[in-house]
Amino acid sequence: MLSDEKPSVCVLGLGYIGLPTAAIIARSGCPVLGVDVTAHVVDTINNGKIHIEEVDLDGLVQGVVSRGTLRASLQVEAADVFVIAVPTPFGDNHVPDTSYVMDAATNVAAALKAGDTIILESTSPVGTTEKMRDLIAKLRPDLKIPGLTNDIPDVAIAYCPERVLPGKILEELTNNDRCIGGITPRCARKALDFYRRFVRGGCVTTNARAAEMTKLVENSYRDVNIAFANELSIVSDEMDLDVWEVIRLANRHPRVNILQPGPGVGGHCIAVDPWFIVHGAPDHTPLIRIAREVNDGKTGHVLEQASLMIDELPSVSIACFGLAFKANIDDFRESPALKIAAKLARRYGGRVKVVEPYANELPAAFEGTGAELVDIDEALESCPVMITLTDHDMFKSIPLDERADKVVYDTRGIWPDQPNNLKASSDLRLAS
Ligand code: SAJ
């Protein structure tokens, strides 16, 4: 049974994961302080507004801020539970950078009291939670720390990765199963009591290292499978086959479920996390490494094919459909669509028009290129060549009669009925 008393919670990092998490915990009735290093983020949230796009998040944040259950600050304050959701990027040679986690743990250590629980949610290399534990032990020698004492520890430390999909974050935060890894089983149980307050999905406990690896494995599994689809798409172009048709047919087999090819893998998770495994065991991860390379290579392949196509059609305007790393979101981080469109803009200047309903202006990568952000109608009116890079629903719903006379390079397979769908320059030569 959960105690009636609501723990006070401090969430460190108010980004795509931290803010929705803070808001959902606040909705469950716990008083939540969200902490971020950016003053603009703190001010925006304290005004009941949000600095990111996510379905239904604005209403939720506005509600919990106006009820007083969520407030934001630049400073960590005392709390019963600390949730760390800060970024873990990689540096040169794909070496994971856990410095934000350690900075956050340092701030938590200063506010820590006996009885508190600290949970790391950031995607992290195996062993990070133990490293964080060691840092806290060093900073707070007055506290008994789990795994380092024979007595009952004063605090609990656990790792619990988020698993949510951008665009469905609130739904998945509530309904997805959670895997909770404690430094000790007692730590896992303490963290479990906390998650059961606001998670409807199943919560299973394990140790911290297994939970860290589970998160990395989930995203690597997807990366490897997308790499398979991307490799098939290049092979199919080479063999003059329609990859979408081949995948659709193969997936009729009851034990085959091939993912979709695209212009490469974007976002800050799937394109990053597999490197954390490779870095941990470089001699034993040829498959995971090559999958990363295949997916990154697909972006270069699309750029090359698009350039060949454009070179055959001098002086016409080219519309790039989409900059977001995936459908129906405003997130451009690590986006292959953005990389391709920006490189085309640098190559072809003002001939390039970009259609991105989720952007108000072109990102910095387009500066000085002469490329323009246009809406769907303008692109249809002025661009004989169209390259689809993101599968936004708004693009899918463009009917055939509005694009039948266009030359199209559809990297997402959103217009299967397109007659002039030129995947490769050889197709183009055939058509012309
Ligand atoms: N993609 C394809 N083909 C596909 C599926 C995806 O090319 O068939 C591309 C997308 O276009 C995008 C990239 O892969 O560029 C990643 O998109 P995604 O929808 O697969 O995943 P993310 O990055 O939005 O979220 C993933 C999710 N992980 C898994 O599905 C295993 C999510 O549950 C995680 O919480 C998230 O990473 C994270 O934060 O780690």
Descriptive notes:
It is a single chain. Helix content is 42%, strand content 12%. The chain is of the alpha/beta class. The protein has 2 domains: 9-201, 3-Layer(aba) Sandwich (Rossmann fold), CATH 3.40.50; 218-431, NAD(P)-binding Rossmann-like Domain (Rossmann fold), CATH 3.40.50.720. An 8-stranded mixed beta sheet has the order 3-2-1-4-5-6-7-8, with helices on both faces. It has a 5-stranded parallel beta sheet with strand order 11-10-9-12-13. Strand 9, helix 12 and strand 10 form a beta-alpha-beta unit. Helix 4 (99-111) packs parallel to helix 5 (128-139), helix 8 crosses helix 10 and helix 11 (286-311) runs parallel beside helix 12. The radius of gyration is 24 Å and the shape is elongated. The structure holds ligand SAJ. Ligand SAJ binds at residues 123, 162-166, 218-219, 222, 226, 259-260, 262, 265-267, 269-270, 325-326.
Brief summary of the model shown:
This protein has 432 residues and is of the alpha/beta class. The chain is built from 16 helices and 13 strands. It is elongated, with a radius of gyration of 24 Å.
